[in-house]
Amino acid sequence: MPASSVRDQHPRPMPFADLVLTHISWLVTCDGQMRCIPSGAVAVDGGAIVGVGTTEQILSLFRGRETLALPGFMVLPGLVNTHTHAAMSCFRGLGDDLPLDRWLHEIIFPAEASLVREEMVYWGSLLASVEMLKNGITTFCDGYFFEEAAARAALDAGSRAVLGQGILDFPSPDRPDPRTGRQRAEAFLKAFPDGSDRLYPSLFCHSLYTCAPETLQWVKALCRENDILFQMHLSETAGEVGQLLGTYRERPVFTLERLALLDEGTLLAHCVWVNPEETALLAANGAGVSHNVESNMKLASGVAPISRMHESGVRVGLGTDGCASNNDLDIFSEMDKAAKLHKVMEKDPQTCPAPRILQMATRDGASVIGLGNRIGSLEVGMRADFVAIDLDQPHLTPLYDPISHIVYAVKGSDVRHVWVDGRNVVWNGEMQTVDEKRAMAEVRRLAAHVRTQGDLHMSRMKSLSL
Ligand SMILES: [Zn+2]
């Protein structure tokens, strides 16, 4: 008897999946076609997505060890925050309403020099991870000091994260002698925790104005050797670009090109002041850009030419930057601001349409941080990172177009359930992994030191002016 007849008589048992979500009002896949599936379903096994389709299709293919019906919910890929300094949640609201150079040199650098310790990085990063997960951000790309502590925080919270150890040619909280940069970077990479494929190491050079060309080059070489992401800030303000033009006699992207720092493994945060020639160079070399619209607005840094970048083929994701310059970590809010600000700047309501903006917050964001083959869309084979939005609310009623809602109407506070790698980390708005009240209490305790230090700093300034 042919094998096919045997199968017909004894149909293969339906495969089990760890988790099957069904009857989702709208499943927003963010796949290549940006498909939205009504009455959608998704099956997850071993932390990966094994089925995506309608409820009818998925229930005919899989039996769930756990099955959950989500009528009245929209499910979309976990959002990707492509640029932040998670521990800076400890400095939330410190030094508002100042330009970048004064904010950095008068407030942030002195506070970091005297206060940032491993303990602060752990608790600040844990609080930030909690805030991000509850706002639907399942992956963040970080750059700071004592980055081992940020890695522990992301692991404890259940986030996915790219963790960039900060390198600059000045004394820093975890490296009083800047000449030891290479040892610090190598030690960080060697000790990076394995056993979780949710964490990825990276190296983060602060900028062209705080790192010498030789520093940038050895860091990039180390990144290439280890096949990890190289991150840096670039062309955030006009003043910075003017200063660098004076030093290097060329625009910053040309300096990076000359130093052979540009390729698909390089992520540049901001790129507000890049001209058309620089944009073309970024596209030609494949470097990714993180667009931090709220931080750029708050510090009045300017407006990055995102439409031009898109037209040139530059990959662009969205980022919050550290919440000291934002002052929260919410990519829904970034999507809304980015979509609207660029329309105003271009005087064109068709600029940055909602689907393009959602791509930046999901699949394009995943691409620029080097995780494009793992996250950013709900497709078979991708890791199971997704969030469920409660649609039964006045500001989300009625619903004609789910992608329009995500960009223009949904708030981070509308996120009810979150899964990372198939694990439920937020349920009904409550953290399932760590004690968020403890994280808040620890950061309040640390903030008392920040406050004291701030008072000391102010009195020192006053005595100097007297
Ligand atoms: Zn930054």
Write structural notes for this entry.
The protein is an alpha/beta fold and 466 residues long. It has two domains: 13-77 and 379-431, Urease, subunit C, domain 1 (Roll); 79-368, TIM Barrel. It has helices spanning 3-9, 55-59, 100-115, 118-134, 147-157, 181-191, 213-226, 238-248, 252-258, 276-285, 293-298, 306-312, 331-346, 354-361, 363-368, 402-408, 436-465; strands at residues 16-28, 36-45, 48-54, 63-69, 73-77, 79-84, 137-144, 160-167, 199-205, 229-234, 266-270, 288-291, 315-318, 386-390, 415-420, 423-427, 430-431. The strands form two sheets. Strands 1, 2, 3, 4, 5, 14, 15, 16 and 17 form a nine-stranded mixed β-sheet that branches. An eight-stranded parallel β-sheet has the order 6-7-8-9-10-11-12-13. Strand 16 and strand 17 form a beta hairpin. Helix 6 packs parallel to helix 7 (213-226) and helix 14 packs across helix 16. The termini are far apart. Mean pLDDT is 93; it is low at 1-7 and 460-466. The site of zinc ion (ZN) has 6 residues, from loops.
Any descriptors?
binds zinc ion, Urease, subunit C, domain 1, alpha/beta, TIM Barrel, 9-stranded mixed sheet, single chain, 8-stranded parallel sheet, 17 strands, disordered N terminus, 466 residues
Please describe the topology of this protein:
Elements: H1 3-9, E1 16-28, E2 36-45, E3 48-54, H2 55-59, E4 63-69, E5 73-77, E6 79-84, H3 100-115, H4 118-134, E7 137-144, H5 147-157, E8 160-167, H6 181-191, E9 199-205, H7 213-226, E10 229-234, H8 238-248, H9 252-258, E11 266-270, H10 276-285, E12 288-291, H11 293-298, H12 306-312, E13 315-318, H13 331-346, H14 354-361, H15 363-368, E14 386-390, H16 402-408, E15 415-420, E16 423-427, E17 430-431, H17 436-465
Parallel strand pairs: 1-4, 1-5, 6-7, 7-8, 8-9, 9-10, 10-11, 11-12, 12-13
Antiparallel strand pairs: 1-2, 2-3, 5-14, 14-15, 15-16, 16-17
The structure holds zinc ion (ZN).
